[in-house]
């Protein structure tokens, strides 16, 4: 999407002309690709989906009808967020105007992705960060690390051939491979913590 188109959409969203805003949402709905494609939009929608998304000011927050109708009619999802509940602050009025919405295909393909609201720096809006795949952690909370010695072992090639097949979800594939690799490491090299304790007791 070119800069001119982006600017036009942004101006329409912020336009006081109700007819222009309605035409834009109707056009977006007409060009929605549906659940046959991966579809996701992130940014400043300048609209609320619930009264809880506004705090402060004389006028209470309410669902923006055009945006709400677009979400309801297309079946897209507002994925939610982590950290601060509001993304915009002006003159003591807090609102959640920035968000990510996606269709079902995107949700199934990236089931573990999430949106984080970062701290405001200069602008009155918080930046958004999309994380498609969280860092894998072991049961004890330490990050998973690939050990160079594994590829030197003669059985490692057969292990990868057996456990490295894609199962339809990249996150699940990596998570399953990681768990299997941890077990394989224990079987081949033994439990490192146990070996350290055993060596210390002999010292």
Automatic annotation (TrEMBL):
Gene Ontology molecular function terms on file: catalytic activity
Organism, scientific name: Gossypium hirsutum
Xref: Pfam families: Exo_endo_phos (PF03372)
Gene: LOC107951562
Domain (Endonuclease/exonuclease/phosphatase): residue spans on this chain: 12-100
Classification via InterPro entries: Endo/exonu/phosph_ase_sf, Endo/exonuclease/phosphatase
Gene3D superfamilies per the UniProt record, alphabetical: Endonuclease/exonuclease/phosphatase
Protein known as: Endonuclease/exonuclease/phosphatase domain-containing protein
């Amino acid at each position: 999407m070119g800069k001119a188109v982006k600017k036009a959409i942004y101006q329409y969203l912020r336009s006081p002309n109700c007819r222009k805003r309605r035409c834009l949402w109707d056009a977006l709905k007409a060009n929605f690709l549906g659940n046959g494609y991966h579809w996701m939009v992130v940014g400043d929608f300048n609209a609320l989906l619930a009264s809880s998304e506004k705090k402060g000011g004389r006028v209470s927050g309410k669902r923006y009808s055009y945006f709400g109708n677009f979400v309801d009619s297309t079946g897209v999802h507002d994925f939610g967020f982590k950290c601060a509940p509001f993304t915009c602050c002006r003159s003591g009025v807090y609102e959640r105007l920035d968000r990510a919405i996606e269709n079902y295909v995107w949700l199934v393909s990236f089931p573990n992705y999430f949106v984080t609201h970062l701290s405001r720096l200069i602008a009155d809006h918080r930046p958004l960060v999309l994380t498609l795949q969280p860092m894998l952690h072991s049961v004890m909370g330490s990050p998973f690390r690939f050990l160079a010695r594994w590829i030197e072992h003669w059985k490692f090639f057969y292990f990868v051939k057996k456990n490295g097949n894609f199962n339809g979800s990249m996150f699940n594939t990596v998570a399953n491979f990681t768990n299997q690799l941890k077990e394989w490491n224990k079987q081949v090299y033994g439990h490192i913590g146990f070996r350290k304790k055993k060596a210390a007791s002999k010292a």
